[in-house]
Amino acid sequence: MSKVTAVIPCYNHGQYVDKAVTSIRAQGLDDIEIFIVDDGSTAPETISILDAYPSEKATVLRKQNGHLSSARNYGAERATGEYILGLDADDFYAPTFLKQAVEILDTRPEVGAVTSFTQNFGIRTDRHERKKGGTVTDFLTANPCNASCLYRKACWEDAGGFDETMKEGYEDWNFWLAVTTKGWAIHSIPDYLLHYYVAAQSMVVDSDKKRPALMKRLVENNPEAYRNHMAQVVYDEERKIQDLEQRLNEVRGSLAYRVGRCLTQPGTVLSGIARRLRNRSENRD
User: Which domains does the chain show, CATH number per domain?
Assistant: First the structure.
């Protein structure tokens, strides 16, 4: 039995997987088993890479395609570790994450999972996410925990695993709602220790476009959490609306907005000047 089992779901991401494994092995923890869960990959490159992957670095588990939740559950079911380290195949950890996370779980029995701040790379390199964890009320309208983090296998069991029917996104958010509804807290290390890859066709980009439908699904899946904390849900959403209205008013009050409005609104002196300049430019052409 290992202290930690790392579970790396992989579907046609063979070109990234060694970097993920290397980042786990660089954590300096000897008592760890590493599973790469091949979720029915079809890309020849990935199949070839996993066929030849050194067994001393990681164990490759193969299954029929069932999507991300299915792959995570497949690895967790076979994990001998007390703690499960989740990591998507195209992400990687900073070398100081795991020892800190293990110490927190070892010394704080109320904590079910340990996350950290996130440094994005790929198409969203300018976005750094401060995932702050929390309890169930912190997960009602936002998801302050990464899917890639360290969590107790007992949490996974309490939550009933990841919902394998949620294939369009938010399956990790749904999982954390189930975990925190059971009374577990999520702790966040206030440092950027997860490097998260955002591709143009990644699930996180697609799921953001489907947020209303996916939020409805979260409520349906976790009725106890939303029923018991409806006042908090309303408060959180009203705060978001208030913040957006304040930002909109700040934009409308800015000099750039006022100048732009004068240039585009018919009948103003500046719009007339702008129109004449455009006409003059077109006549030159």
Answer: 4-228 (3.90.550.10), 236-284 (no CATH)
